[in-house]
Structure formats: C-alpha cells, structure tokens
C-alpha cells in the first residue's frame, strides 16, 4: 500500500487557493523566516520540518515547540518577521537532517565550501525548493513537482502563486545560484527521476 505525501514549502498557503493547489499538506518544510504567520495554514496532523541554518534558528524552534514567547533580542537576528506561535503539538515537529543540506550543496550541486568574506556572500546556499526535492527522493518512490522552477528568461512571470514577486527577483538575491539549480532540475526531469506536473522547469523533451 502506498500513500500520497504533499510537501508545502515556506509560507505557501492553502487557505484561499485550495481550488488550484489542493487542500492536503503532509509536510510543511521551512526555515524560520519562511514559516506561515497565520494559524490557518497549520493542520493538526501536519509535520513541521524545520530547516535550520544559523544558531538563532534553534532558539526560535525551541520556543515554538515549547509554546514559549520568543525573546525580543532573539527576534532581532531574523531578516524578517517570524511566527510567534505554531499551533502544533511537539510530536509534530521535526528538524531536517543537516546532512541533506550538505549533500545538496556540496555533493550534488558541487558548490564550494563557505569562505570567510569581508563583504557579500558566496552563492552556495541551496533553495528550500531543491533541498525539498532531494529529501523527497530519499523518502518517496515517486516524486512529482507542481508549480516549481525558475525561468529567468521570463522575468515578469510570477515567482509564487500567492504574492506579487516576479521571477526577476531571483536575479537580485545573494545566496542562491538558481542557474545551477535549474540545470540540475532539468536533468532530474529529463532522466525521469522526478515528474514536472506543471512545466515549471521548462524542459525540452
């Protein structure tokens, strides 16, 4: 017997969009700044998978699991507002194994090891999307993608289904190498490792 698992990333909402994106969520995978702020996006049987990149992320997750108030000084270390409460029981929280992130960045995408820099960043942090794809290939026999991919040749194309960001925004971020990720995703689709349901990766078959 098999079951269908639905991963939703970051703050991708169901409320108000279920006609197009369905109403099932099995895993909500996000880093702290990406977690939904609305209680309506959490369902009692969901698994909340936290992707932790920095030490303060652990403090945030601990507060969420224990249903505690996050100290003001901790909130200062996040680049945008983070959820103050997540209405799930502790048994529904998980931490993504950092080995998955390391495997994605250094083994699969072949990024260089982080270097100390006085200014700026190396683009060697995988997006949550490609990390989720790698996780899915570890957990599932079949993997299908819907509404995911980066076509930088269409800068006015919506980046997400739920906000006003366009694809051009990816040209201005400093952490992710979406060109490398796109080549990798195209290869996965062409070799039949994953199925691209919505054509977001824009492969030529």
Which secondary structure elements does this structure contain, and how are they paired or packed?
Blueprint: E1 7-9, H1 18-21, E2 27-30, E3 47-50, H2 55-65, H3 72-75, E4 93-95, H4 98-108, H5 128-139, E5 144-145, H6 178-190, E6 195-196
Parallel strand pairs: 1-2, 2-3, 3-4, 5-6
Could you provide a short overview of the structure?
The chain has 205 residues and is of the alpha/beta class.
Structural overview:
The protein has 205 residues and is of the alpha/beta class. The chain has two domains: 1-96, no CATH class; 98-205, sialyltransferase cstii, chain A. Helices cover 27% and strands 9% of the residues. It has six helices and six strands; from the N terminus they run E-H-E-E-H-H-E-H-H-E-H-E. The protein has helices spanning 18-21, 55-65, 72-75, 98-108, 128-139, 178-190, and strands at residues 7-9, 27-30, 47-50, 93-95, 144-145, 195-196. Strands 1-2-3-4 form a four-stranded parallel beta sheet, with helices on one face. Helix 6 links the parallel strand 5 and strand 6. The protein is globular, with a radius of gyration of 17 Å. The model has no long low-confidence stretch (mean pLDDT 89).
């Amino acid at each position: 017997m098999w079951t269908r698992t639905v991963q939703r990333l970051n703050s991708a909402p169901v409320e108000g969009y279920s006609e197009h994106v369905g109403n099932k969520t099995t895993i909500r995978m996000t880093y702290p700044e990406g977690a939904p702020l609305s209680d309506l996006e959490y369902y009692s049987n969901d698994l909340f998978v936290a992707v932790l990149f920095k030490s303060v992320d652990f403090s945030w997750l601990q507060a969420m699991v224990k249903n505690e108030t996050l100290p003001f000084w901790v909130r200062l270390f996040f680049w945008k507002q983070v959820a103050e409460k997540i209405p799930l029981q502790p048994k529904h929280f998980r931490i993504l194994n950092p080995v998955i992130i390391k495997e994605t960045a250094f083994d699969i995408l072949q990024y260089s090891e982080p270097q100390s820099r006085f200014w700026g960043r190396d683009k060697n942090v995988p997006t949550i999307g490609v990390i989720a794809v790698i996780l899915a290939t570890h957990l599932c026999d079949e993997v299908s993608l819907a509404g995911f991919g980066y076509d930088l040749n269409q800068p006015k194309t919506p980046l997400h289904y739920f906000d006003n960001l366009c694809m051009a925004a990816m040209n201005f971020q400093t952490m992710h190498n979406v060109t490398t990720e796109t080549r990798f995703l195209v290869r996965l689709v062409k070799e039949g490792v994953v199925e691209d349901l919505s054509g977001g990766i824009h492969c030529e078959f």
